[in-house]
Design a protein that fits this description.
By secondary structure, the chain is of the alpha+beta class. It is built from 14 helices and eight strands. The strands form two sheets. A five-stranded mixed β-barrel has the order 2-3-4-6-5. The radius of gyration is 24 Å and the shape is globular. The model has no long low-confidence stretch (mean pLDDT 89). It binds fe (ii) ion (FE2) (2 copies). One fe (ii) ion binds next to loops.
Length: 351
């Protein structure tokens, strides 16, 4: 196959030039290093082996395939490696696909900031806001619980760096802090609207609800679940981290500890979303709802951002099981021309 338009020319004159994934266009030839987010050995309908991969850098991810010399190229790398690739980009089923011809494992020092996305917000500013809200907690026992975490410098450095998810929401460095702060801010406002809520309990629960994520994920060069993350999950990990801290607090009332644990354990709301218990006090109901609001707003917003569909509608989201409207509906009925959407609706049998 003849090489399409190259994206290499600029690199040849500028050593710092990088082909970021968000800038990759169809019908171009790409030579660049990317992180292997996933790698699967597959068979075509004819029974020929191929590799199906997702490559990423901090600006996004792209589907990639290896069709030729599969065994030879596959032997050179594994998931989580950074590889130098050469290949051409095509448009397939409404998304970009990188068809790789050459692969070389990147050795030596790798700069994680190239491959891991980081929160766009200022971490010290977020920490200040978080400290201000927590500083308003009056219950001395809850204040002691919070202090145990705040003075644990190892915990805090992981808490500031961890993502809040692998894919779904806030999947970037600093994402856990950003998400936790949003949840705390909303809980703070809700407790003003509904003064019968136990504001201190709600805010302490908001701060601690996802702390188990610092152990659920690994986030050194790429995001993945840890063994304890897969086997226990962040709800149980969070409870055991809390139990470790309350050992140091004298005479903490049983009622308070049980409720705080319940807030952590029930914040996913339903059994099918991983909560071993459904919320059974009002503060736990509020925490669950607020957690879902922040997770969904971030997740759907990011889906819009990475969507490459040209029409009025996004591509189909398997996670949210729908298309989203992303443009302004014209006065003239031009929707009939949105053939891309019609094709996708046929494909997924959804509207
Ligand atoms: Fe959670
Ligand atoms: Fe959360």
């Amino acid at each position: 196959m003849e090489k399409p338009v190259t994206m290499m020319t600029e690199r040849e004159t500028n050593k710092n030039y990088r082909i970021w994934i968000r800038d990759i266009k169809a019908d171009t030839w790409v030579k660049e290093s990317y992180l292997v987010k996933s790698k699967r050995s597959m068979l075509t309908k004819k029974g020929d082996p191929y590799l199906s991969m997702i490559l990423s850098d901090k600006t996004g991810q792209i589907e990639a395939r290896v069709w030729d010399r599969v065994e030879e190229l596959s032997a050179q790398f594994k998931e989580g490696d950074v590889i130098q690739i050469e290949g051409y980009v095509t448009y397939f089923k409404d998304s970009m696909q990188l068809n790789i011809k050459e692969i070389r494992l990147q050795k030596g020092e790798i700069d994680p900031s190239v491959f891991l996305e980081t929160t766009s917000k200022d971490i010290s500013q977020m920490m200040k806001e978080l400290g201000d809200i927590l500083g308003g907690i009056k219950n001395p026992y809850l204040q002691s619980v919070i202090d145990e975490f705040l003075k644990d410098t190892d915990f805090m450095s992981f808490f500031k760096r961890a993502p809040a998810g692998k894919n779904l929401h806030h999947p970037y460095l600093g994402g856990l802090l950003e998400h936790t702060l949003n949840v705390m801010k909303m809980c703070n406002q809700i407790s003003e609207l509904y003064p019968f809520l136990d504001r201190d309990l709600l805010l302490c629960g908001a701060f601690l609800h996802d702390i188990g994520k610092i152990k659920e994920y690994q986030y050194d060069l790429h995001f993945d679940y840890t063994h304890e993350g897969r086997l226990l999950g962040h709800l149980i990990l969070g409870i055991s981290m809390l139990e470790e801290k309350i050992k140091y607090i004298d005479k903490i009332p049983k009622d308070l500890i049980l409720k705080l644990k319940h807030l952590i354990l029930s914040h996913h709301g339903e059994y099918e979303f991983g909560s071993p218990k459904r919320p059974k006090i009002l503060e736990a109901v509020v925490l669950h709802l607020v957690d879902e609001i922040d997770a969904k707003i971030n997740g759907i917003y990011r889906f819009f951002e990475i969507d490459k569909n040209n029409g009025l509608w996004t591509g189909f989201s398997r996670v949210y099981d729908r298309f989203f409207l992303k443009g302004i509906i014209p006065e003239e009925d031009e929707l009939k021309n949105d053939t891309g959407l019609r094709l996708q609706e046929d494909l997924f049998n959804r509207t």
